Amino acid sequence: GNSVTQMEGPVTLSEEAFLTINCTYTATGYPSLFWYVQYPGEGLQLLLKATKADDKGSNKGFEATYRKETTSFHLEKGSVQVSDSAVYFCALGAGGTSYGKLTFGQGTILTVHP
Amino acid sequence: DTGVSQDPRHKITKRGQNVTFRCDPISEHNRLYWYRQTLGQGPEFLTYFQNEAQLEKSRLLSDRFSAERPKGSFSTLEIQRTEQGDSAMYLCASSYQREPRNTIYFGEGSWLTVV
N or C: which end of chain B has fewer CB atoms below 10 A? Predict the structure, then answer.
């Protein structure tokens, strides 16, 4: 079946540091890939997405590239801010009859210090 | 704001009681999803509707759980005879069939604590 593996956290960085959160997946067919962010006590917000191989999703300075050859979708940001502190989830969306059924990784807690 | 709305946001109940959560999706979204998230884990899919039809149910959805979407708009998730293991956040999400594949939008969740 489908699965998503994220790098274990928590990740602690100083403001303006470079961020990478690794995500790899296992899936059949041609899934879509997502990064969601969850702030304390809140639901999930879609951060970025990519629907086919070599697509790059980007939003708010975050980027991730859909790499089919390495089955990866790593999240990066060049300069993090304190306000980026949150939990980040990588997710996979299968197509066909499983449309809309997302498989999530376990989440990576990011803390950014001033 | 016309995002996904969930009610109540927090619910504390005694073991054995029934609870019901409501979800109002984004207007015109014909697909609605329920997920469950336990502490420190990613959300897990429970079920989804297209209009009023419930098209898929996860094995996580035991017989004590029932979800409805009677008019293809709002949805309810009822848990009967709650157990402590039901304590979690229940997330609702919605999407529009013609949007780019699998772009779904989540509500803020309903926290359930069973004591």
Answer: N
Which of B31, B102, B109 minimises the CB distance to A102?
A: B102
DSSP reduced 3-state for B84 = helix
* Torsion, Cα of A76, A82, A87, A92 (10° steps): -30
Residue A70, both tokens:
């390495």
**A52 interface with B at CB cutoff 8 Å:** no
Is pLDDT larger for residue B51 or for residue B103? B51
CB contact under 8 A, A49 and B100: yes
What length is written for chain A? Answer: 114
**B91 pLDDT tier (thresholds 50, 70, 90):** very high
φ and ψ of B49, to 5 deg: -120, 145
Cβ distance of B45 and A49 shorter than 8 Å: no
How many Cβ pairs closer than 8 A exist between chain A and B? Answer: 68
Q: Which of A25, A38, A87, A88 to mutate to test the interface with B (most CBs of B within 10 A)?
A: A38
Q: What is the mean pLDDT of each run of 10 residues along chain A (114 residues)?
A: 89 97 91 92 88 93 96 97 96 71 93 96
Instruction: Give, in order, the Cα–Cα distances in Å from B74 to each of B6, B7, B11, B71.
Output: 10, 11, 19, 7
CB contact under 8 A, B42 and A46: no
pLDDT of residue B102: 55
